[in-house]
């Protein structure tokens, strides 16, 4: 009896050890599979092509445009707080702080190996240098224009960016705009002009800075869109390469365009915190703008900015009881109608493009299927002859 009990205990202990070993091996296999999946995902994000596919999968046109729209509204309110309540009247230095904070955040991502790699076939250094220069001019001169002119005059000047982009894309990229899209863009521009005509106040120096801002702004949007779509750059990788160039030229512009007295500003905890929050939103604005330009086009991004103007105007009228006047409301509604037509034309063209792509793929596959059917028929005939 005692012997049988010992044998039973030995048998049970052996089975338990086998089960534990099996569980350990299963856990080890699952852990290895999870580690392989994590390493493959990490390698995909570190490569330019994989990061570009991942960006396109997560940030489609609608997501990127919505992200940029929300951040744009937020930074407008924050910059009004910085320039108004805080009294930080140094627009170029504020832009400089934005880009330095952006570079610092991207440096952290790069240290943690979370920054996407540049494409294997890297762009020419001259292209990256030109993009950094036009970024500094576009952002810096825009803030100078906002300091000296009214928001309405700034919005009126943004209307000139649309034809500038059309002309520049035709000269640089040989891209043409259809007559229907040109008509829709004309309606949008006219509506925005009517909506903002009641708030057109400008300073002579500010007007000169606005005129100097139009061309760099158009070229900036075109380069961001084309370099991402044609050369497989991701938004963060391109920002990482061009931000130091932008920071350098902002330092060069600072003594010429900013007033003296930056060191005498009251850098207390409250003011510094608000400026740093504005800089964080500036990083998100730059990133979301790059995502939107990579997912859509330069003209679509300009139309999004005009859509933001109309939404803010109509939203203030409906929600907060502001009275911009019946002329401005009618202009905003007209602009929204033109934007709806422009969006419909874009969706229609993309649908036609996808249908053409599918038909081309079908035409390429049909000769192969026909050949395979003929080979199959011949093979069947040979088998029948042999069997007979």
Automatic annotation (TrEMBL):
Ranges that cross the membrane: 58-78, 90-113, 125-146, 152-173, 204-223, 235-254, 274-295, 302-320, 326-345
Residue stretches of biased makeup (Polar residues): 356-369
GO terms for cellular component: membrane
Location within or outside the cell: Membrane
Domain Sugar phosphate transporter: 65-342
Recorded coiled-coil stretches: none
Keywords: Membrane, Transmembrane, Transmembrane helix
Positions of region (Disordered): 356-388
Name used for this protein in its record: Sugar phosphate transporter domain-containing protein
Lineage: Eukaryota, Viridiplantae, Streptophyta, Embryophyta, Tracheophyta
């Amino acid at each position: 009896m005692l012997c049988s009990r010992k044998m039973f205990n030995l048998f049970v202990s052996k089975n338990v050890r086998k089960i534990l070993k099996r569980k350990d091996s299963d856990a080890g296999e699952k852990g290895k599979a999870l580690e392989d999946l994590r390493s493959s995902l990490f390698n995909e994000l570190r490569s330019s092509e994989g990061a570009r596919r991942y960006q396109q999968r997560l940030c489609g046109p609608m997501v990127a445009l919505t992200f940029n729209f929300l951040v744009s509204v937020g930074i407008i309110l924050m910059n009004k707080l910085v320039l108004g309540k805080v009294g930080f009247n140094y627009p170029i230095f504020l832009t400089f702080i934005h880009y330095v904070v952006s570079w610092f955040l991207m440096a952290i991502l790069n240290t943690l190996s979370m920054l996407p790699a540049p494409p294997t076939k890297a762009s020419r250094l001259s292209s990256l240098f030109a993009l950094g220069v036009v970024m500094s001019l576009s952002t810096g001169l825009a803030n100078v224009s906002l300091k000296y002119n009214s928001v309405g005059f700034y919005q009126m000047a943004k209307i000139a960016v649309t034809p500038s982009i059309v002309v520049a894309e035709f000269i640089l990229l040989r891209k043409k705009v259809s007559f229907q899209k040109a008509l829709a863009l004309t309606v949008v521009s006219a509506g925005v002009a009517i909506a903002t005509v009641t708030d057109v106040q400008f300073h002579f120096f500010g007007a000169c800075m606005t005129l100097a801002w139009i061309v760099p702004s158009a070229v900036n949007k075109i380069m961001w869109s084309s370099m991402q779509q044609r050369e497989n750059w991701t938004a963060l990788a391109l920002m990482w390469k061009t931000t130091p160039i932008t920071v350098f030229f902002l330092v060069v512009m600072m003594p010429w365009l900013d007033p003296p007295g930056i060191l005498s500003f009251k850098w207390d905890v409250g003011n510094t915190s608000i400026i740093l929050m504005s800089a964080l939103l500036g990083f998100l604005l730059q990133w979301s703008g790059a995502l939107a330009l990579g997912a859509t086009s330069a003209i679509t991004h300009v139309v999004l900015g005009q859509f933001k103007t109309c939404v803010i105007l109509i939203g203030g009228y409906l929600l907060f009881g502001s009275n911009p006047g019946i002329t401005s409301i009618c202009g905003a509604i007209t602009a929204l109608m033109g934007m709806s037509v422009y969006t419909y034309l874009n969706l229609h063209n993309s649908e036609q493009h996808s249908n053409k792509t599918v038909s081309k793929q079908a035409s390429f596959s049909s000769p192969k299927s026909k050949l395979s059917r003929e080979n199959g028929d011949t093979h069947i005939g040979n088998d029948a002859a042999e069997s007979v």
